[in-house]
Amino acid sequence: MDFFEANKDILLFAGAAAVKVLIFLNAIMGFTALLTLAERKVSALMQDRIGPNRASVFGLALNGLFHPVADGIKMVFKEDFVPGRAEKLLFTLAPFFALVPVLALFAVIPFGDHVMIFGYKFDLLIADLPLGLFFVLALSGLAIYGVFLGGWASKNNFALLGAMRGAAQMISYEVVLGLTLVGLLMIYGSAGLQDMVRAQGRLLFGFLPAWGIIYQPFAFILFLTAAIAENKRTPFDLVEGESEIIGYFMEYSSMRFATFMFAEFVEIILVSMLAATLFFGGWQVPYLYDPGFIFPGGQTLPLNHYIVAAMQVGAFAAKTIFFSWLMLVIRWTLPRFRFDQLMNLCWKTLLPLALLNILITGAVMLALGKI
Fold first, then answer.
1. Which of 53, 216, 233, 291 is the most exposed, fewest CB within 10 Å of its CB?
2. How far is CA 33 from the centre of its chain?
3. Residue spans per domain, the chain
4. What 8-state DSSP symbol labels residue 62?
5. Cα torsion 241, 97, 226, 199: sign
6. Continuous segment of H or E residues that includes residue 301
């Protein structure tokens, strides 16, 4: 009993962290499953079709809502085949190298400010790292190992070719992705994602939210382009050929294949959350603070603390859903690049523009006396 009394605060916050992990992980898993359905529904909308609508429970189809469940059951019962020539250990581990780093990145993304429970303050993120942005960039690079090992360990020339393309593409666009965010680091003066979101709660000229998109609109375009390319989504899906059923995961089946596909959709959510966090205020709602709404004219609308927290979490979720939808629409509207065009776009266009953006940001800050 004395042990629990002496370590009450540590145990309380450890328990809170575990609860946040479970809630956030389950929310991500559920949203990812729905995103697989949304992918096909957006595809059907673009092609003037109905889309998946046949899976039902007791005759209740709900316009295809049960299709993600049917997909999961199908994947579980498919044959788990390992080629005889494959490097079996690495072949087995590769899907997890692709998925686990992506899931770990959600730990540093704030989905709200804080809540007060029994007099204790709990931040609405799992790990408030002072270098959270660098953590994101470092860990996202580890997903490259999953792609390359998946192709190499298969001992298949076509899978290896897709893996080499994927590794080259991800490494190249990782460089651009990091450079597009340097301007925000210079402006906000912090690499902590929660600090950057709180800084976006300020007002410019007394009425304009100081969101990242206001400071760095050009960097946002570069960031979104590089993020989609690193995620290997159309129009940058050069690591696979869907019509030929070929790519770095061509030898995978059952849940191993599903893990690769699941990781891709989880990355969509991650990119959407990062776009919302860095450029669109994260959980910030214009003029909404802990006491309630405080408008530029001085008018106030007091709100309960828990209502404010719920509105902030809801705003963050809405922004994430919007960017996820945008990435699905982009897939079904833009044609694919050739691989040489993809690499030329990175090294000859996006990289110089990202460096130019850093130069202009520094020059403006120097002129305004912010350095």
1. 291
2. 15
3. 1-77, 79-367
4. G
5. positive
6. strand 300-302
